[in-house]
């Protein structure tokens, strides 16, 4: 099960903040920590994805921000979780199983994140919870990047 811990966590991050997960995956690719070689890790890509993650965090607080549970948003989070889960699966782990762990993490993060936020997004009373969610997503992504590779995850057997 430990071989899929990073897979679940990147999916969970995708459920909370989808672009934060994308930025983390790009960082992992740049460091050679991703098993999927098609994940872009160039400097410009990392910069754009980091900017997109910050923009998503800001936009999430707007009253017009869509619910993350609407089908297109939910499916995007699941897809990011699947790709991230496969990319960060442990060295002896199955890529499809890593993808499934990422999907499970994304579904969990999406639903728990929404439940933790409460009823109305974009309201002033909700900002504290939204900022806490941002901190959890960024903190998990940073911790994951610090952990992957040092503990034998995702460095062996890259797959194109």
From TrEMBL:
It comes from the Bacteria. Residues 1-23 form the signal peptide. Keywords: Signal. The keyword Signal applies. This is DUF4126 domain-containing protein.
């Amino acid at each position: 099960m430990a071989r899929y811990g990073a897979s679940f966590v990147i999916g969970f991050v995708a459920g909370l903040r989808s672009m934060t997960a994308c930025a983390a995956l790009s960082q992992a690719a740049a460091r050679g920590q991703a098993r999927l070689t098609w994940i872009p890790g160039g400097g410009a890509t990392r910069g754009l994805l980091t900017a997109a993650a910050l923009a998503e965090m800001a936009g999430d607080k707007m009253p017009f921000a869509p619910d993350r549970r609407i089908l297109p948003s939910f499916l995007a989070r699941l897809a990011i979780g699947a790709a991230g889960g496969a990319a960060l699966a442990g060295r002896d782990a199955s890529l499809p199983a890593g993808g499934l762990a990422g999907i499970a993490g994304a579904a969990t993060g999406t639903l728990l994140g929404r439940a933790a936020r409460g009823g109305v997004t974009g309201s002033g009373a909700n900002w504290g919870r939204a900022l806490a969610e941002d901190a959890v997503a960024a903190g998990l992504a940073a911790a994951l990047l610090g952990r992957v590779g040092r503990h034998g995850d995702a460095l062996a057997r890259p797959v194109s």
